[in-house]
Batch of 2 targets.
Target 1
Amino acid sequence: MSAWHRPGPGQELANELDVAGEARLYRAMRWFWHPVMYASELTDSPRGAVLLEEPVVLARLAGEVRCFADLCAHRGTALSLGSISGDELVCAYHGWRYGADGRCVAIPQKEDPAVVPARARVPAFRAQERYGLIWAGLDEPRWPLPEVPELESGEWAIVSAGPYRWRCDAARQVENFTDFGHFPWVHPGLLGDPDRPVVPRHQVQADGHVLRYEIVRPEAPNTEDLPVFGNEQAGPPQRRSRYELHLPYTIVLRLGWGGERGMVYFFASQPVAADRCAGYVVIGRNYNTDQPDQVLRDFEDTIFGQDQVVVESQRPERVPFDLADELHLRFDAVAVAYRKAMRGLGLAAS
Ligand code: FES
Ligand SMILES: [Fe+2]
């Protein structure tokens, strides 16, 4: 049984009944761009990744990022073990060479290596590089990536953190990123104040596959060790957080303190398998531009480490998209909207 279908505790019967639904869901998730690695990780050798349980190989060929099934057409060797020569991907086992479209272009064992059977090819998927990440789409993506001009203007300082590889469903990781109620409990002193646990009122606007909402809350002061926020300015100590949740697993969060200073968090979770994901965080800011990147990375490593313990303990492992399965209160508006929108787009098993 694949991990995508592995039942969680107490879920066996429900999941047995829902294998067809799960398979549909699995297919639906192929129609999105998903991150598979940082662009800096993809240099002059091919590199493997797993997306929706599908092993893929990424390579820079002829100046562009390419994505193929990680499976040589000859004997099924992982192409990610191979190398790049010129504009071709070369299998590590017998040296068959593949071009940018996935077709085998040379078989060195033959007297005429260029005479290649038509079946000698590997499935090619969509791939692109943007926001410092490599993205893959196993089927034609339904929507383009979100626009985040701050990350492309060249004027903001950009820091990446992670990837945060968690043993949970990508939706659990995304939901954690958007959850306001946990800040004082899981991140006291860093993102929340245990003396002020009340979640400010907020409303979620659903706009196709994008959920938008914002929240204004008392500013959590910078810690002395990890001073990462741009809040040293006049005016009320408030932080405005504007969220765009692009279904299924990408979030753009813009923070402001009422002045010129701004910070943008770009977060995307890679659905590796039903119980595995990897979270990529790309942060832009127009202040603290000479602060060493490691300060922000240490901050994110701390926050994500605190979250990981809690989220990996959640049961069921998959977010239950049926609202009746959990207890939702008004301050859980985002979680409710996320479940409804995922269901509405056919991205949740019923
Ligand atoms: S297995 Fe790849 S060339 Fe033989
Ligand atoms: Fe958190």
Target 2
Amino acid sequence: MATLLTVSVGLPKDVDWRGRTVYTGVWKQPVDGPVMLRRLNLDGDGQGDLGGHGGEQRAVLVYQQDSYRYWAQVLGRDDLMPGQFGENFTVDGLPDDEVCIGDRYRVGEAVVEVTQPRVTCYRVGLRMNEPRMAALMVAHHRPGFYLRVLTEGLVRAGDGIVKLSTGPEAMTVAELDALLYLPGHSRDDAARALRIPALSPGWQASMQGLLDQADEQEGNAGLETAAAPPAWAGFRPLTVTALDEETRDVFSLHLAAADGTPLPSALPGQFLTLRLPGEAGPLVRSYSLSGTPGDAVYRISVKQEPHGAAGTYLRANARPGLTVEAAAPRGSFTLDSGEQPVLLLSAGIGATPVMAMLHALAATQPDRPVWWVHGARDGAEHAFAAESRELLRRLPHAHTHICYSRPGPEDRDYTTAGRITPEVLRGLNLPPDTAAYLCGPTEFMGEITTALGELGLGPGQVHSELFGAQGGLTPGIAAAPAAPPHPPDGPPGPGPAVSFVRSGLTVPWSPSYASLLEFAEACDVPVRWSCRTGVCHTCVSGLLSGQVAYSPEPVEEPGEGNLLICCSEPTSELALDL
Ligand SMILES: Cc1cc2nc3c(=O)[nH]c(=O)nc-3n(C[C@H](O)[C@H](O)[C@H](O)COP(=O)(O)OP(=O)(O)OC[C@H]3O[C@@H](n4cnc5c(N)ncnc54)[C@H](O)[C@@H]3O)c2cc1C
Ligand code: FES
């Protein structure tokens, strides 16, 4: 019989880490005597970041004494103490390759159920003073696991652990962990995992991603958003074939292959990245495709911002015959091909990706119910007014609502004066299964997302595109005021140029940084990460052009056209979708 050797608890506290403050509960201390195990926690225990740890599905973390012995040998450590891996229960027995998801056990007075392997995160490395720890635990098939509490009760060190039942499908913790993180994901096994009701919802979503992954799709669809590989690597020349004036400060460019062959089709909502000559080095900027997906040529529509470098360059130089360098269309803000109603909502130049979606609907799904909601200042700044009207005429189940914030005396073609507000959205009477696609200024999108949530649209129904850097994800790090992206402190590095395209920053790489992630952080470029050692794919980013070397090698490489910034450095000039 397995035995509970140690019960450890600890409340979150602030810990210094590389000049930042991490709020974490990974420091646990053994307790003598009985401890009450409740649905969310042991008494006296807590987690700092409930997004990644804790909660009903992850109330208790279990790690095995056998793994302590293993790591002591592999890492040459003689200082490992119970609770060191952040676990609550240190146990004798219950190995990861025998315990199954859904197994039920009685421990003391409590009854518990296994819900998922431990999630890899940098904090175990922080606690162990071994930054590779998250990756090692996966690669060596020793993750440990989480329990849900079915019956609350007292537990204490020395309690026997009695198995009550085996989870359906008898899928072990080690098997499931390898299925998600290691290469060679079997669809049959993902389907098996989905038949285990005890599996936590987060892992169920990952398993669904693996099950839905197309055969030809590279990368890990359990950890990354699925996207087709880019149609070409790096930048290729495209020729401007025509120019359209849309409004006073918005113009469209038609771009064709230099040899006249049809360009690979893009998905409705994707964007193109251009590399243009600039006074202080190349200007790398992204523009959503605004024309009909599948056309032999691409159309982008550019708003010339006052003092905007790329907009000004294109305004001055774009004419038929100009060659520009372009990276392949990419992006996961794309129209789904389902049957449910669609809300296409935009403000100002944010109309571009949803125009491509409107073209796609008119061409291929004319019977789909569509709500077209757009906000502009007035008729003179209303881009694509005639084009969208014509497309909407071809959609018999379309509804239109145009808001002009400052309509002029001559303006007639709008529905309401003012901005797009929650009241406007309420008045649309959207069906509850509507899929919403939003594009506009950041603050506006935040308000609209909240308002759609209040109307009952879940997060999975609301998709948005930002014309700038996306929000960062820095688990457990205390919030600090966000500084705009800037070159790193100190003299410029001697390495190749790295363009953080969404942030509009190009800076030379310096080998004094351990990874592109650390380099981006030094530039205050918003980044997303969790394990920082090549396992979780949270840091996956678009590699628009260039090559990188990995160190350490990631547990599994990301899909083509992407990179993991936490464990890579440039070996050539880079353009990153960050
Ligand atoms: C996925 C994606 C899709 C996009 N799609 C589109 C699209 O379809 N159409 C489009 O037009 N844009 C789009 N963008 C935005 C585009 O990439 C550029 O960021 C934007 O056009 C500004 O680029 P710029 O070089 O002209 O301006 P920048 O030189 O980068 O300037 C940025 C801002 O700073 C201001 N600024 C710069 N210098 C000064 C100064 N000296 N004084 C005061 N203010 C200053 C500018 O007015 C501008 O508002 C998209 C971005 C992304 C990430
Ligand atoms: S942060 Fe986990 S793979 Fe990069």
